[in-house]
Amino acid sequence: MVVKPLDSGTLDVASGSLEFSARRLTLFELVRDASSISLAPTLLQEYIQKRSEVRVTVIGGDVHAVEFEPRDLEETIDWSQLHSGLEYRVILLPEDLQTRIRKFVTWYGLEFSALDFARSTSGDLIFLENNPNGAWYWLELETGLPLSDRMAELLTRPRLAATC
Questions:
Q1: CA distance 27 to 44
Q2: 57 and 39 part of one domain
Q3: Is the entire prediction scored with pTM above 0.85?
Q4: The pLDDT of residue 94
Q5: Which SUPFAM superfamilies does the entry link to (predicted)?
Q6: DSSP assigned state of 108
Q7: N or C terminus of the chain with fewer C-beta within 10 Å?
Q8: Angle at 116 between CA 111 and CA 117, to 5 degrees
Q9: 78 in a domain, yes or no?
Q10: Which residues lie across from 75 on neighbouring strands?
Q11: Does any domain span residue 28?
Q12: Under a CB-based contact definition with an 8 Å cutoff, are residues 91 and 56 in contact?
């Protein structure tokens, strides 16, 4: 099991500091620590043995996918938090998966989203989570994808006035 706080960072407390980041828990630890895990919004995910991660950034219906993996195979729970020591490559998702992603994002009424997938050791893409306010600029810096151009187009296009 993987436990992930909704935000990562450090909290200073009287006894020192507490670091909040994704980490793997055994079932024993999960049961033992359930009362403290329940104190803050937390995601619980099945642990997946993976060879890479894929961040899919959707901006105004455009689907951009970047696969990244560590240069060394040291076990890391959430590689997207590393930003360095990773190899990046732009990938083209199958059209049926792109269609399902667009439907998913549209169903939630989003114009932008960052979806995370794990590529299992068998090569399957496994959906992990949707980040409706996920980071994306670092992927442009690493790959040259024109994400900021797409975002600027999205933010400046004319909209229909909402009616109540």
A1: 12
A2: no
A3: no
A4: 96
A5: Glutathione synthetase ATP-binding domain-like (SSF56059)
A6: T
A7: C
A8: 130
A9: yes
A10: none
A11: yes
A12: no
Give the C-alpha separation, 164 to 149, whole Å: 32
DSSP structural state of residue 61: T
Q: Which residue has the tokens 């055994």?
A: 26
Give the count of domains, the chain. 2
Say if residue 72 is in the same domain as residue 7: no
Q: Which amino acid is at 55?
A: R
CB 132 within 8 A of CB 113: yes
Cα–Cα separations (whole angstroms), residue 53 to 98, 123, 150: 17, 11, 23
- Distance between CA 164 and CA 108 in Å, rounded? 19
Same domain, 15 and 55: no
- Residue 80 in contact with residue 102, Cβ under 8 Å? no
Its domain, for residue 40, covers 2-45
Quote the CA–CA distance of 142 and 137 in Å, as a whole number: 9
Top-confidence residue, 4 or 35:
35
Which structure tokens are listed for 132? 């409706």
Beta-carbon neighbour count of residue 104 at 10 Å?
Answer: 15
